[in-house]
Amino acid sequence: MVHSVYSDREVFLRELISNAADACDKLRYAAIANPDLLAGDPQLAVSLAFDKKASILTIADNGIGMNRDELIDNLGTIARSGTKAFMENAKEGDSDEALHLIGQFGVGFYSAFMVAKTVEVYSTRAGEKAGWVWISDGTGSFTVEPSDGAPARGTRIKLNFRKQEKNLLDELELRRIVRTYSDHIAIPITLAETDNEGRIQA
């Protein structure tokens, strides 16, 4: 029943790409007043990378990024209450209430937890040096810690997929989903397969 709310779970990618593109648009707007925010990396883009063996999909952007407070404000409410409430309503088959919660808190993270057992969000706010990582398993708690592994600017979301959802980690399948839901996005979107060291496959 829970998957019927999400049109075969594919909507998670649409929402996360949309969020990434929005972050790029926000940076472009902010850079009108402060061009230095784009320094060193002016070409805004969204990139997807997947590792089928490790069951990992990564969605990254070099947009506005988030600092510690923004990660807590933007994602903390979802982890604390929204996901749990959504899961309960979806499991009970109350799709109307589930859809209401999607609208209230933002579908992106709910749908991410439909396919992922844990979600890691690495982010650095444009114009700031400190990087952070937000981690949750969608059961009502989360952590936010400093991270040397965060991008220099922007956000990288790492989804650790559930075993039964691994069929989505396929190049043709991912390209089809991107074309279906995200073709209208003006920001360039790239897709690559990585090995277990995170290197792009030739």
Short descriptors:
5 helices, ATP-binding, 202 residues, alpha+beta, 7-stranded mixed sheet, globular, nucleotide-binding, HATPase_C_sf, chaperone, Hsp90_N
Description:
The chain has 202 residues and is α+β, with helices and mostly antiparallel strands. The protein has a single domain, classed as Heat Shock Protein 90. 39% of the residues lie in helices and 22% in strands. It is built from five helices and seven strands. Strands 5-4-3-6-2-1-7 form a seven-stranded mixed beta sheet. Helix 1 (11-33) crosses helix 4, helix 1 (11-33) crosses helix 5 and helix 2 packs antiparallel against helix 3. The longest helix is centred in the middle third of the chain and has 24 residues, at 68-91. It holds the Pfam family HATPase_c_3. It comes from marine sediment metagenome. This is Histidine kinase/HSP90-like ATPase domain-containing protein. Keywords: ATP-binding, Chaperone, Nucleotide-binding.
